Amino acid sequence: MIYEGQALKVTKEADGVAMLTLDLAGDSVNKFNTLTLKELAEAVELLKLESDVKGLIIGSAKDVFVVGADISEFLTWFKLSDEALADKLREVHSVFSDISNLPFPTVAAINGIALGGGMELCLACDYRVMAEKAKIGLPETQLGIYPGWGGTVRLPRIIGVDNACEWICGGAQKRSADALKDGAVDAVVPLEKVLQSARHLLQQVIDGKLDVMARREELRAPMHFSPIEKMMVFESVRGVVGAKAGKHYPAPMAAIKAMEKNVSQSIEKACETEIKGFIKVAKTDVARSLVNLFLNDQYIKKLSGTLSKSAEPVKQAAVLGAGIMGGGVAYQSASKGTPILMKDIRPEALDLGLSEASKLFGKQVERGRLTAEKAMQGLNSIVPALSYGEFKSVDLVVEAVVENVNVKKSVLAETEDHIRDDAILASNTSTISITELSKALKRPENFCGMHFFNPVHRMPLVEVIRGEKSSDKAVAQTVAYAQAMGKTPIVVNDCPGFLVNRVLFPYFAGFSLMMKEGADFQQIDKVMERFGWPMGPAYLIDVVGTDTAFHADRVMAEGFPDRMTHEGKNAVDKLYELERFGQKNGKGFYRYEQDRKGKPKKIYDEEVSALLAETVDSHNEQSDDEIVARMMIPLCIETVRCVEEGIVGSPAEADMGLIYGIGFPPYLGGALHYLDQMGLKAFCELADQFSHLGKLYEPTARMRDMAKNNETYFKA
């Protein structure tokens, strides 16, 4: 035994091969925290003194290699002075450089996930052997930073500048086939042969069949480009990455800037260049927001995991109502391994639901994510039904019929008579009270809400709604099923619109008020899209459906009459009256035609302004800043109300609900993080400028108290 600590150990075999095994005590994964980095540095110092070691394999005793840095711990680094942060980064660089310069060859045996710092450790080794099902990557740009432990220096030298920019700026996890094709790893083998292959590779170096020193020299030296070659490579990459990243996410472009400079430097200077650029992005508001999102995401996953531990797994599910939504739920369940019955009263609806699921499975096959055989197995686990014949075997039923309280009550009551007494019923409603729906049931304790977002296969969020009589068991089992479907569940309490739609409709109300003042909906859309929303409010209403928006608006107005009612006819009312239902029938605020891929393409419709003229009662011009304020203030205040009233359990859950449910701009970190960044005092002063618009723009008393005391929703 050369070294033994709480995070790793180093042993030496009889043949002179040393094995550094990562195995962080008390944790299910390996990660780079202070302890692991300290012990790695100590182990490497001892290895430098071992004169009879012929080679080193770095592997893991866990199912993963290293998932990356412990973000919660490294947040404290970002608060250090620039020089103190630089010193911290240099300490890690020093350890990784020592590994690169050991007097014997090194091989990373990548048995599972190796991300961020874990990947950078692999890059510091001479060779890399990867398990077939492992994944590697440098996802730091998704946190608003870029690799800071040598990733921007070593990866371009190993796989080329073009590939390295795509890996680092995209932040994706790479499968073994892609890693081998790009040259990031030297071999891909079955999991059980990873260590054996690593030993074989070492032996080839020891036997002189592979020139490890030539490889090291290539990594240490500057890369050679003519000025024109370098300009062409980086200008091309900058154009592609800049278009994807946009102005709100500076990290990808900062990574390119660092690589453009450091590829022409020796490795020592290149690492300093990386450190200098890393410090700049680590201190940005965007990095703080995105790291906060990551931590919030971990928090809600932990909450869901704790809840689902007490639940029986759903072995057989069912969905009531086929069509696009029912087909989407059926596909998502089947694709993740839970067989599902899909019931409808109309054969043509079942055909539509199966067609939708088949289309989605087909796309997975086209993209190489599923074999045709696996896709067929998934499709065959969706069983269409016109009756309740097999419902006694069902553990959980998702009701997804038309958004009408009486229809839903009737269907739920009928279904309850055909399922086991312990089976769970869940309603996929977007606005109707779960407590109200439960009045039709004999066993309301076995009922809760399960609100999916459209399209089901893409939207990550599921709201699990607890009614007045919903039991802990019903909520826990529904959460467990949502997790099994690959979704992120957030438990909320019952109220009109629950969390997401309750917050979304004040945002729409801000839009409608500006439309009544003669605003141009195209301008509003463009401003909000530039601000960071995936689509502007008019476009979003078309996607949701103006019919859906119209009916939901009535529910919200009834639930919150003090701030969600409006006088007279607004733009959505008029479009609904004209049967312009948005993408559903090809006309709403915009017209829609199918593009070459069969997707609806948005086209400006010159008729709309004239059609909406009767809903305009004044003509006021708004600046871009005013448009943003008038859209964001109602949304933020309503999010605060949901937290204050206990509709959602925490600021973290509220923010993640908006990010995952309606595409709130991630670079802002969520509505409550956005308030923290702005400062509640500044926000309340801004809101007061629009007090003439009514209660939608009135901060709560608690917000004003927090503003006076400089309080925040997220603690520093």
Task: Summarize this entry quickly.
Its EC number is 4.2.1.17. The chain contains 31 helices and 20 strands. Helix 17 (405-416) links the parallel strand 14 (396-399) and strand 15 (424-427).
Describe it for me?
- The model has no long low-confidence stretch (mean pLDDT 95).
- The chain starts with a strand and ends in an 8-residue tail after the last helix.
- With 716 residues, the protein is an alpha/beta fold.
- It is 51% helix and 12% strand.
- Helix 1 (34-48) crosses helix 3, helix 5 packs across helix 6 and helix 21 crosses helix 27 (624-644).
- The chain is built from 31 helices and 20 strands.
- This is enoyl-CoA hydratase.
- Keywords: Fatty acid metabolism, Isomerase, Lipid degradation, Lipid metabolism, Lyase, Multifunctional enzyme, NAD, Oxidoreductase.
Keywords, separated by commas or semicolons:
single chain; 716 residues; alpha/beta; 2-enoyl-CoA Hydratase, Chain A, domain 1; Rossmann fold; N-(1-d-carboxylethyl)-l-norvaline Dehydrogenase, domain 2; 8-stranded mixed beta sheet; 51% helix; oxidoreductase; multifunctional enzyme; lipid degradation
Helix tally equals: 31
Q: Any idea what the shape is?
A: globular
Question: Termini distance?
Answer: 42 Å
Largest sheet: 8 strands, mixed
Number of domains: 3
Mean pLDDT: 95
| The top level CATH class name of the largest domain | Alpha Beta
Percentage of helical residues? 40-55%
Secondary structure: elements and pairs:
Blueprint: E1 3-4, E2 8-12, E3 17-22, H1 34-48, E4 55-60, H2 71-78, H3 82-100, E5 106-110, E6 114-115, H4 117-124, E7 127-131, E8 135-137, H5 151-159, H6 161-170, E9 174-175, H7 176-182, E10 187-189, H8 194-206, H9 212-220, H10 227-245, H11 251-262, H12 267-282, H13 285-309, E11 317-320, H14 323-335, E12 340-343, H15 347-366, H16 372-380, E13 382-385, E14 396-399, H17 405-416, E15 424-427, H18 434-438, E16 447-452, E17 461-466, H19 472-484, E18 488-493, H20 500-516, H21 521-531, H22 537-544, H23 546-559, H24 561-564, H25 571-577, E19 591-594, E20 600-603, H26 607-611, H27 624-644, H28 651-662, H29 671-678, H30 680-688, H31 701-708
Parallel strand pairs: 3-4, 4-5, 5-7, 6-8, 7-10, 11-12, 11-14, 12-13, 14-15, 15-16, 17-18
Antiparallel strand pairs: 1-2, 2-3, 8-9, 16-17, 19-20
Enzyme class: lyase
EC number: 4.2.1.17
Family: In the central section; belongs to the 3-hydroxyacyl-CoA dehydrogenase family.
